[in-house]
Amino acid sequence: MNALRERLRPRTIRGKLAWWFTFAIVLAVCLVFVLMLLQQQRLIRSEWSAGLRAQARLIATNSQAAIDFQDRQEAARLMQAVQSNPSVLRARLLVAGRRQPFAEFARPGVAVAATPAMPQDDEDGRDVHFGDNQIVTWAPIPGSSGRAHIELVATASDMQQVLWRTALETGGALTALLLVFLWLSGRAARRLAVPLQNLNQLMARAADHPGLADRITARGEDELAQLGRSLNQMIDKLQARDQELAQYRQNLEQLVNERTRALLSATEQAQQASRAKSDFLARMSHEIRTPMNAIVGLGQLLLKTDLTAHQRDYQEKMQGASDMLLGLINDILDYSRIEAGKLQIEHIDFDLEQVLRGVSGQLALRAQQKGLRLLFHTETGVPQRLRGDPLRLSQVLVNLGNNAVKFTQAGEVVVHTELRQRRGDQVVLAFSVHDTGMGIPQERLAQLFTPFTQVDESITRRFGGSGLGLAICRQLVELMGGSITAQSREGVGSHFSFTLPLAPATTAPDDTADPGGTATPACASLLQGRRVLLVDDVELNRTVALAFLAEAGVQADVAVNGREALDKVLAQPYDLVLMDIQMPEMDGLSATRAIRKHARLQGLPIVAMTAHAMEGDRERSLQAGMQDHLTKPIAPDALYAALLRWMAPHQAGIAAAAAPAAASGTPGDQLPALAGVDTARGLAQALGRPDLYRRILGNFLHEFGASGQALHSAQAAHDWPLARRLAHSLKSASATIGATALAQQARQLEDGFARQQPAAADLLASTGQELSRICALLAPLVAPAPAPHARGAATASADLQALLARLQALLQNDDAAALRVLQQLQDHASAHPWLARALPRLTELVEDIEYEDALQQLRLLCANLEQSPA
Questions:
Q1: Picking from 234-243, 254-263, 813-822, which range would have the lowest pLDDT averaged per residue?
Q2: How far apart are CA 457 and CA 549, in angstroms?
Q3: d(CA 125, CA 137)
Q4: What is the CA radius of gyration of the chain?
Q5: 708 close to 727: Cβ distance less than 8 angstroms
Q6: b or e along 238-266 (b: 16 or more beta carbons within 10 Å of the residue's beta carbon)?
Q7: CA separation for the pair 185, 47 (Å, rounded)
Q8: What number of other Cβ atoms are within 10 A of residue 829's Cβ?
């Protein structure tokens, strides 16, 4: 067994060559044998089939007269003619439509197997059939139109004997040839293996004795001779290199020590530079964020005061510019992190129209000052609700737009958005910014997105800028999965475009939400009377934070450094500490560690509220013992969320927050389930009163029952302002009663009418059908209006409550139809002094589009009306 394994797996070159030569020769001889055998079989079968076919055709030709005259004797005689051919077992003359042969010859004592029917196609090669040990051939009788034919059945035994004899002769010849080839291959393997063995032996000796003087004697010009000469040269070079290495080895230790000292010195310098860069970025982050906190915070507080329409517009634009400036400062300060690939891209739901509106607010003033036309064009089919990073998208668009306005002296700047393609659940949007400015030379386009690069050296002096904006734009676009390109002609203008893959939003927009609201009302009820210690050394920061805390109903004490904060928490109890990090005397981290050393203060929530926003700052705050980390400028929503998260509400606050729910009515007043209407949501928007909700449903039925036809008429007349107003009102009213699907359809109609584009026929029809279905559901729930003389004080009060709820929903949706409701409220002013005094101020605020302030006035009015209903 081992010997067989050694033969099958040879180790020497000679054995391997002999094995492969043998395998190749045997395989080739076998293939030749098989091919020759197949060829002989085909030739023999062809000869036999040709003979039988000729004999069948001859009999068929001679049988024509017998068929024509129906002479069976003559036909039988012709069948007997095949008796002289011992291979033929049976001959039959078959006529179509007859089961029995017209004439037949069968060799006695021989059984014939069943034969197939004659093929319809008489093409050559198909009139012969080779079956099990027999051959069948057919020949049609001329003049019979295929109705009669001759069938011959012959034995295949003689043909097979011929095949076997041919195979034996061929096999014998090839076997002799195989032996000759094997003998020759053995000699060839030996001739090739011997020089290789000599080369191997020389290499082994040279490895053991580097100074070996033996060499290969190479004769001839074949590959083996060339290999021998190459081996001789390699040994010579190795011996020369060994001598050089021996000389280098003497000074190697000294060289390694010198290089190691140089490497350690360079590493220390690099680490010092990295630490200096990190310290600089941390200091700059804190120094810049501190004044930005005051700018953003005071700007938010200013928006809550009584401002004129122009003042509010300017302040909102300043607030948007402050937010965008803060985002740009963050990117510039964290540029090293961007290059290192550590910048995180958000994936949140956002409204594209709001993003573009914010970009417009950033660019409009500068464009107006330069006398430029600023145009925003969004193609049809671009989805409004998307999921991605709106801050980074807005940053790229503002950067490109600012550059376009900066380098354009006359003409226009166009921001264009279109749907490029759909990829499954994703859409690819193409954004472009086109200007008619100075343009960029072609030779500078390739370096345009390189950091700290300007078109020419004079650009910085003329227009300002560091040349970092476009590089940040490219990196942000690529991080979001897109690509950015630039095209320009000097003196004509520039065209910057980028594509972004975005997913559709996962949540639907809440049309009934207050767009400018925060969590303040919830905090005011849940956190009333809680005590907080605010620790900050900057007066502006304390002013902003104290104003936010006052809105939340939280009592706040102030400390200007960590030492003072420690003294105060030891002297009196607090529910939470808002701790700055960088302060004189004692910083926030040290103060937190000192507080945690006292056992009774282990559970005191401490939240960092600091301008430190570098990588690792949050981790350091948590390691020092803080529970949370808020970054300045402080967003009110984030602050209120942290207060609710780390301070348990007072029981009185919980009762106050739950009080409206307790007034939801008795079980008998509950409404039945309505398909397509979220009655729980609608009831909550009706102050939790089922009777008021029923009244609102009745108003919806009476006001909007014919809106479907009105929308059709407005679209047919191309009255786009009217169509948009109708769709907007239907959207707002549907959201108020809880008809979310109808509100979504109305929103789509409103978006299309805003672009002065007719709605799709199926969308308009489905909206009308949904509206009719909901009105049909509401009709049985709404009692018919009583006669005018039967209306009493209770009915008038219900009407007033319905109008107030309607006004609140319209103000929450920024709907100008609130003016119409205010006019209807005038009828109730005589019975309610509070209403008569509040209506002029409310009307003024709505006319000035101050919907948030109007909402606050309305809430005060409702509270006063409940205290003095008549």
A1: 813-822
A2: 50
A3: 10
A4: 49
A5: no
A6: eeeeeeeeeeeeeeeeeeeeeeeeeeeee
A7: 40
A8: 15
- Token pair listed for 113: 């197997």
For 235, 363, 420, 673, the CA distances from 398, given in Å and listed in that order, are 70, 7, 21, 48
Tokens of 502: 């975005």
The tokens of 623 are what? 């390691």
Q: Which whole number is the average pLDDT over 381-392?
A: 88
Using pLDDT thresholds of 50, 70 and 90, give the confidence band for residue 579.
very high
Is residue 870 within 8 Å of residue 832, measured between CB atoms?
yes
Q: Residue 821: is it exposed, middle or buried by C-beta count within 10 angstroms (0-12/13-18/19+)?
A: buried
Helices (H), 527-626: 539-551, 562-571, 588-596, 617-624
DSSP 8-state secondary structure symbol assigned to residue 104: E
List the one residue out of 242, 238, 213 whose CA is nearest residue 230: 238
Least confidently predicted of 20-24, 66-70, 237-241, 808-812: 808-812
| Token digits of residue 626 | 């803080």
* Strand partners of residue 631: 610
In the prediction, which pLDDT does 500 show? 94
Q: What pLDDT sits at residue 460?
A: 46
CA distance readout (Å), 226 to 191, 196, 202, 219, 220: 16, 12, 15, 9, 8
Do the beta carbons of residue 522 and residue 567 sit within 8 Å?
no
Q: What is the pLDDT of residues 175-226, one digit of tens each?
A: 888 888 888 877 777 777 777 777 777 777 777 777 777 777 766 677 767 7
Q: Torsions phi, psi of 249, nearest 5?
A: -65, -25
DSSP letter for each residue of 111-149: -----PPPPS---TTSSEEE-SSEEEEEEEPTTSTTSEE
Q: Is the pLDDT of residue 861 over 70?
A: yes
The amino acid that residue 435 corresponds to is D
Question: How much is the pLDDT for 334?
Answer: 54
In the structure encoding, which two tokens stand for residue 810, read together? 């319209």
Please tell me the pTM assigned to this model.
0.36
Which strands make up the sheet holding 555-559, listed edge to edge? 555-559, 531-535, 576-579, 606-610, 628-631
Mention every residue, 6+ apart, whose C-beta is less than 8 A from residue 578: 532, 533, 534, 535, 536, 545, 607, 609
- DSSP class of residue 826 equals G
Query: pLDDT for 661-701, tens place per residue?
Result: 333 344 445 567 777 787 776 666 554 557 657 777 877 78
Q: Which of 746, 748, 739, 740 is nearest to 776 (CA)?
A: 739
The one-letter amino acid code at 643 reads L
> What residues contact residue 352 under an 8 Å CB cut-off, 6+ apart?
378, 382, 383, 384, 385, 386, 417
